[in-house]
């Protein structure tokens, strides 16, 4: 892992998330923050898998960080949390594994296809549990809102 | 409370909910928004039931003229992703809940949000090209692969946008998109424009991945809206299968021809 490949990965994860956000019409004010979240999630995943950590655990950690940052950003930027959550998660969605599953399925390598499919399912479960777990952490609501609730 | 006013408030709230669901919001946000608006304008006696493709809202208003029932049912046949609209409605609902907005202002602002001009097609195409190219390099492709991937992304998304306006099945439209970009990728690989066929195809798959449906499914199920969550899961699976079948068809055909 040299400095050039790190810089390329940072740049590319920012650009891909940025482009993805424009497709889904995310407000211009939030675009840069979404790009930064893309960098965070991809770099956590990239560094962890580079040092030999299991990809499922790496996905879990990256997703947890993203959900946490999304909730904080949603609080400070006064936006729905979805706006930050979707772009942040996109880089670690197992798009490549889905392709290899389909490729091996259609070229007749049943065993290969099955093993890739199994990895997809494990990673999706890691994402799901990270989202549920971090959303369950209570965060203090603003005082104004509490008054309204009462 | 005057009956006419209560009808206007209910219409406003259910319209806000419909726009949220159309733009790809989760159920909890829709229900929160509707009840915030109703609470802010003083409607207390109401029942609300929300599904992924429908909102049922009924209220009982007691005034001097007697009791009045009023019910609105909204059907949401098709959904697209427009996170900017969700943000705008969120801001509006915050303002209403804080009492900064009268009913007239709220109606005008909601109309404005509904009729906001859609994004320019060129911008979306360039964004797709940028995203696909960057994803391709991110997953291990070279810079030339990224460039080829970006051009293919630009071309096939043009067709994907055309499909959005039709009422065809999602399985079919994503499948056709998959066939188109896989064919373009295989041909450019065959003529030596790119080195890694798999990375180019992966880069073009990424913008189609049903990220929003998956996240919404998880959040709906975590919030206890199992029915809506199940609908979202089916949506995500259908789109993924559509992409896989499309790409797979192109691979089978070109393997049979002998190009790859």
In short:
With 150 residues, chain A is mostly helical. Helices cover 78% and strands 0% of the residues of chain A. Chain A has one domain (3-140).
Characterize the structure shown.
- Chain A has helices spanning 3-23, 31-50, 55-77, 82-89, 95-106, 110-135, 143-149.
- Chain A has 150 residues and is an all-alpha fold.
- Chain A has one domain (3-140).
- In chain A, helix 1 crosses helix 2, helix 2 packs parallel to helix 4 (82-89) and helix 5 packs antiparallel against helix 6.
- The longest helix of chain A is centred in the last third of the chain and has 26 residues, at 110-135.
- The radius of gyration of chain A is 18 Å and the shape is globular.
- The model of chain A is unreliable at 143-150 (pLDDT under 50).
- Chain B has a 3-stranded antiparallel beta sheet, covered by helices on one side.
- Chain B is elongated.
- In chain B, helix 1 (3-22) packs antiparallel against helix 2 (27-40), helix 5 (121-138) packs antiparallel against helix 6 and helix 7 packs antiparallel against helix 8.
- Chain B is mainly alpha-helical.
- The mean pLDDT of chain B is 90.
- At the A-B interface, helix 1, helix 4, helix 5 and helix 6 of A face helix 3, helix 5, helix 8, helix 9 and helix 10 of B.
Low-confidence stretches of chain B: none
Total helix count of chain B? 10
Whole-angstrom Rg of chain B: 23 Å
What is the helix fraction of residues of chain A, given as a range?
over 70%
Which chains have the largest interface? A-B, 49 and 56 residues
Distance between the termini of chain B: 72 Å
Number of domains of chain B: 2
Averaging pLDDT over every residue of chain A, what do you get?
89
Q: DSSP strand (E) fraction of chain A? A: under 5%
The rough form of chain A would be described as globular
Largest sheet of chain B: 3 strands, antiparallel
Could you list the spans of chain A in which at least 5 consecutive residues all have pLDDT below 50?
Answer: 143-150
Distance between the termini of chain A: 54 Å
Order of helices and strands of chain A: HHHHHHH
Total number of helices of chain A: 7
- Given helix and strand content, the structural type of chain B is mainly alpha
**What's the helix-strand series of chain B?**
HHEEEHHHHHHHH
Given helix and strand content, the structural type of chain A is mainly alpha
Amount of helix of chain B? 55-70%
Largest sheet of chain A: none
